[in-house]
Write a structure and sequence with these properties.
The complex is a heterodimer of chains A (354) and B (123). Chain A has helices spanning 2-8, 12-99, 109-180, 185-278, 281-303, 315-322, 329-335, and one strand at residues 351-353. Chain A has 354 residues and is mainly α. The chains are: A mainly alpha (354), B alpha/beta (123). At the A-B interface, α4, α5 and β1 of A face α1, α4, β5 and α5 of B.
Chain lengths: 354, 123
Amino acid sequence: MLAVLAVGGLRTASLLCACALLAAGVAASAWQLRWMRRAQAAARRQATEQEALTRIAALCSTSAPVWARQLETARRTADGEVAELSRVFGGLARKLEHALGGEAGKRPAQDRAVGVLESNGAELGNLVAALQSLQDSKHHIVDEIGRAAAQLKESAAEVREVALLTRMVSLNATIEAARAGEAGRAFGVVVADMRQLVARTAAASEQFSRHADALHGLVTGAFDAQGEGDGSIAWAQELVRQVITSMEAVVLELSTSVSTLSQERQDVRADISRVLVALQFQDRVSQILAHVGDNLGELLAEAAPEGTPREPAGTGEWLQRIASNYSTPEEFDNLDALPPPAAARGGGSEITYF
Amino acid sequence: MNRKLILVVDDSASLREVVGITLKSAGYDVIEAADGKQALARLDGRRIHLIVCDVNMPVMDGLSFVRQAKQVPGYRFVPIIMLTTELREQKKLEGQLAGARAWMVKPFRPEQMLQAVSKLVLP
């Protein structure tokens, strides 16, 4: 600008040219200053980001092995406990099958018992029908005997009447003989009456004989029926014995099943206890996963702190911070730089009474 | 038969189920709550003979519930068993100070749970 004034003097054109140059210089300086500020801000931002990345990298390198072990513990716990549950349930199924007699190709005891009961019911039904028939037959025989007895009574009454008449005729003949003396005409009448009486007595005797025969036949029939009854009773006794034998077999089988169930019950109870312990794995896995989730939230907060910037956490402080909500023994075990412990811990529990 | 009622408080549904199966098999009646706030709502005048409570729960944790339950008229002397994975002595001490009667670490065996319950349950 001074060079322009020296060459051109204090003329208007020279003054305008000098002012233009001055303005250009000021603008260039302002632009340069602004550029430098932007460059400085970018450098600071880059440094901050680099610092954050370095811090995150340090925390990640510290945390990642712990979280990896936590996740591995959760995975192995779930896997191991599910396998244990599967084994226990398989054992339970086998024990129940054995206790209930449900081997392949073999009917369950209760089915066999029902079959035997149905069969025995049919057999006993036949027995009842046979006994009913025998009873009907005996009733018929008794009725026939009753009728025959009545007829015998009638015949006996007739014989008694004949005897009475014979006695009276004999008496009359005696009287007439005494009165007539030699007169023999009366004896002819008496003899005729005597002949009649003899004929009637003979007929009655024959009738009586026939009834006796009938009675004999009936008695024989009754005896025969009694013989059949004896056979029926023997058959019934044999049938009942068979029924009792088969029922005893069923009862013995059921008793064996009950005994087996009783023995298996203890084992099943122990298995159920193991199942209930194993089912609690879900709670531990859930807690481990929730804590890892909390840890990730902490890491994000550490990487991009809100509000007043704070001093970056050291790795020791960081581990203490992420472990502050750990509760399961597996989680504390995983804090050490050691191989993961056996995932599932047995069913042992501590209890403290206050 | 006058059956005894036990309140089971745990945010894990499966744990509530396991504890419920264990207690019901021994003849107890069971009601459930998923956190301390729900559990407080269960203290509505009914007779409860024992409470089994987790420690770490959302909404209201177990120790806070115990402290507040002890302030509810009629429930001050109901025995409480803390059922937790917590092994830290500090937490156990907090449970004792809050008024719990026992501290049981999960996983538990059913017979252990029943032994503790029968020892503490109200007559």
